[in-house]
Amino acid sequence: MADVVLRVSGLSVEFASRGRTVRAVNGVSFDLHEREVLGVVGESGSGKSVTMMAVLGLNPRPAARLTGGAIEFEGRDLVGLPEQDLAALRGRRIGVVFQDPMTAFNPVKKVGEQIAEMIRVHAPRMPRAEAMRRAVDLLRSVEVPNAEERYHGYPHQFSGGMRQRAMIAMAIANRPRILIADEPTTALDVTVQAQIMSLLEAVRAGTDASMILITHDLGLLAETAQRVLVMYAGRVVETAPVRDVFRRPAHPYTVGLLGSLPRVTDRARRLVPIPGSPPDQMAPQLGCPFLPRCSLAAGRSLCAESIPPLVALGPHRASACHFPHEVPAHAERVLDRRAATS
Questions:
Q1: According to CATH, what is the number of the domain 4-225?
Q2: CB atoms within 10 A of CB 275
Q3: pLDDT in the model for residue 218
Q4: Residue 256's Cα: distance from chain center in Å?
């Protein structure tokens, strides 16, 4: 499609660990469209961050190895590009808001200087004084109070929410085409989370950027994303418009995620987890990775014998389940049972 900014096709990433191989990402494919907010959700270890860091070539080498697939940004294949060419894209055409700004910032350099440095890396002829003015304006644009004074502050002198604002300022410094936000509200209280997400959406809209939002929080995606990519064990198991994910999920894992969401009306004090654990991604996978945790697959040999491919269910929906048309009724039973016991 003409409006596709980023296309990832058949992406696979492996990590070497103690003489064994961890298959962290297995054949992931998706498109990101202009001005779209794409939410990526799944448990820890599902491959969300590894997939998105592969786009930028930021997975640690030589431990991480891209073993297959294509990554096209603005029609250009990024796989195999020299490091110098990838570095020219980072921060200029693709910006990143990292999960922990305290470790993303250099602790011994002033925050404002690091933002100004990001600007001058991609505009080396810009005078330092102008880069400083732009950095102050950026801090002001993300609602950092006393931006002129804060420019000279060090990361440890900023609160968690303020560091995240400064990280957003750095990410948008060169008006990138894509923003990748990797768990941008981790360790922030609920009020600050809402402020950060509101700010992210405002700056994204102001720069006409597309955004990939990586999170564990389906509730957050409901308020932010237009489309959702659900990942499990290094694979995409469902992709759909955000409303469809909530109203008519097409994979049992998505049903489990919905069932574990806290509800205001719940009288139960504990969340309802998905039983079991994700599979060992060092071991060969013969059947559906979700089989040991799936009540829908009980007694079905097909689920144990083959890995379900990601199959289109319509123009904007796909599911990696052998029985996707049974999932909505399964979801009603699971979620109704939870409501009855809460």
A1: 3.40.50.300
A2: 10
A3: 85
A4: 19
